[in-house]
Amino acid sequence: MRVVIAEDNVLLSAGLRLVLESKGMEVADIVTEGPALLTAVAEHRPDVVIADVRLPPSFRDEGVRAALRLRAERPGLPVLVLSQYVEKVYARELLSDGRGGVGYLLKDRVSRVGEFLDALRRVAGGGTVMDPEVVAQLMASTAARPIDRLTPREREVLALMAQGLTNPEIGARLVITDNAVQKHVGNIFGRLALPAEDGGHRRVLAVLAFLDSR
Length: 214
Fold this sequence. Notes:
Elements: E1 2-6, H1 10-22, E2 26-31, H2 34-44, E3 48-52, H3 62-73, E4 79-83, H4 88-95, E5 102-106, H5 113-124, E6 128-130, H6 132-139, H7 152-162, H8 167-174, H9 178-191, H10 202-212
Parallel strand pairs: 1-2, 1-3, 3-4, 4-5, 5-6
Helix pairs in contact: 2-3, 4-10, 7-9, 7-10, 8-9
Protein name: Response regulator transcription factor
Domain HTH luxR-type: 143-214
InterPro entries: CheY-like_superfamily, NreC/VraR/RcsB-like_REC, Sig_transdc_resp-reg_receiver, Tscrpt_reg_LuxR_C, WalR-like
């Protein structure tokens, strides 16, 4: 797997390189600014991009803006965005094209190497991964919203879907059968009025509905 990293923190970028290369992945380039990320992706054509939300010069949203531009220019390019804090608007924007292959993790998650690598592989494979802390904060909202049509168990299943888990993984986490998970997922699609013809994108649409209700 070929990776391009956009991260201005030297220690973190060096750590990412060490971890990825130890697992046989190729770090094609490490850049520190949004424009340089665009150039690096054009040159190296990576399998997945890892980008910090905030990059020089303003340290506001240069990283995520570059990631969104890359996704617009190269539909489906897998992008995993890292953030110091939960910033829900960025998570929502990343999911807005409904294509999958996106992830949003807090930087603390990188230190949990197994979880981080699992998330990276899911994103590279076209999955959608949301940091559990982001999901927890979204679930904490008490305002009236469409998601309230779901039962407590269906909300649990949807939260795990938002983290990128497959049906068998959800079943193992909740200690329920695969058939039960399938039933809950079907109910979620129905209650959120997701069109049947969307096929493989329906899980991403469910996550979008989850975010848009906050």
